[in-house]
Amino acid sequence: MKLIEAIMTNNPCYTQGRKITVKGLMLHSVGCAQPSASVFINNWNKASFGSACVHGFIDGNDGTVYQTLPWDHRGWHAGGAANNTHIGVEMCEPDCIKYVGGATFTITNKSKAQQVAKRTYQSAVELFAMLCDRFDLDPTADGVIVSHSEGLKRGIASNHADPEHLWRQLGLSYTMDTFRADVKKKLGKTTTVEIPEVSDAMTEEEMFKFFRSQGLNDLGAAGLMGNLQAESGLVSTNLQNTYNKKLNITDEEYTRLVDGGNYPQFTADKAGYGLAQWTYWSRKAALLSYAQDRGTSIGNAQMQCEFLMYELKKNYPTVLAVLQDAKSVAEASNAVLLWYERPANTGESVQKKRAALGQAIYVKYAGKAPANTAPTTSFLVKVGISNLNIRKGPGTNHALTGKCTGIGTFTIVETANGVGSDSGWGRLKSGAGWVSLDFCEKV
Q1: In-domain check, residue 267
Q2: What pTM was estimated for this model as a whole?
Q3: Residues 89 and 28: beta-carbon distance below 8 Å
Q4: Is 220:332 a contact under the CB 8 Å cutoff?
Q5: Of 16, 36, 347, 413, which cross-links 378 as Cys (Cβ 3.0–4.6 Å)?
Q6: For residue 43, is it within any domain?
């Protein structure tokens, strides 16, 4: 079972922050012809959606489980007292059925519909077994695992017929008794791949580790990231600077408009966006579709890294081969620059600058400097302002530490190129972090 965290942090149920002591689990099905979990997540993860919130959705297309609330969070799924005691999980339903009244539907492709229902049933069995193990629940004990319709009969849920109505009309032999028995058999035997939710941002190190995990060698990952740093500063919500001015909009406002479906020009506006500054309409359309399928923001860094790898594998296998077996950062960097990014200027100066950015990343995260690279020599700098910010990394895309240098003389032990400083960045010997060398005078 594949379990992905996709916590609906904007839903009012989540923001209320109420907790429960988990005493049981309630199984639902969505009651409409929609197999995609991401559609529900996108629609429900809004501050304006205050009518419902569940702990998870099971995708009908591939059986992936999306956790949308912390398991011990009070949900809005039962329409009754079960909200105070039970985790609620929705199974998505096939797109080849059509509801004609109440819980009754017609079927246009019974075989396909049955496959969807079987897929969600099996994932639900594994998920409920995992949750029973986690919360020490007996799946066959009275009232521990119930359906929404059983909750109605117990007086702890609203008037719904799910999910038994789905199984019955599809001609499947499933019942809640068979479900509880199957969960019992799975106790202690579930194999779950849990993928944690990630914020829209990733640290430079997290990004490097991700690309290494995808089969790129150290030199290839660094060469790729040097290009991404040149393109976007490794900021996944970065909108091409000229379009900030042209559209009179910030990166964050642009991202929110796209996420909310309120900027239909996204694919056609020719504005570079994201880590790789995707610009061409078909690539932006593919990026948007990829984000929507996964229920993430268009500006989510992990999603963009995954999409980048998807693009390399599908459309740029030659570039991918170089990154997997690069013999130097420059080789990897040029492959990305010339064949993947392809900006207007790919001249020698651009090649050197991007290779240098990649080289700095290689030295930092591969844990060693190339044999032909001399170690950085420390030097003293004078700071004449009292409020020079110290950052956690070399660039304005790295978080502030909350501290400033003050006026004085300081020792720099490492330098690096980065966003927001024409002179580069220097790492303080004290270990406090990085400062912009634009505001420093070398002694």
Answers
A1: yes
A2: 0.51
A3: yes
A4: yes
A5: 413
A6: yes
Q: How many CB atoms lie within 10 A of CB 135?
A: 16
Distance CA 299, CA 199 (A): 10
CB count within 10 Å of CB 36 equals 18
Round to whole Å and give the CA distance between 426 and 435: 5
Tokens of 164: 């038994």
- Looking at the structure, do residues 287 and 395 belong to the same domain, yes or no? no
Residue 271's nearest CA partner among 337, 257, 260 is 257
Pairing of strands 389-391, 400-404: antiparallel
- Report the alpha-carbon distance of residue 118 to residue 62 in Å, rounded: 11
Joined tokens for residue 189: 């035997």
Using DSSP, state whether 121 is helix, strand or coil. helix
Largest CA distance in the chain: 82
Q: What is the pLDDT of residues 53-103, one digit of tens each?
A: 999 999 998 898 999 999 999 999 999 999 999 999 999 999 999 999 999
Annotate 388-404 with DSSP letters as a single string.
Answer: -EEESSSSTTSPEEEEE
Question: What pLDDT is attached to residue 52?
Answer: 95
- What is the torsional sign of CA 235, 203, 364, 220? negative
Distance (Å, whole) CA 321 – CA 47? 44
Question: Is residue 374 in some structural domain?
Answer: no
CATH label of the domain that carries residue 283: 1.10.530.10
Domain count, the chain: 3
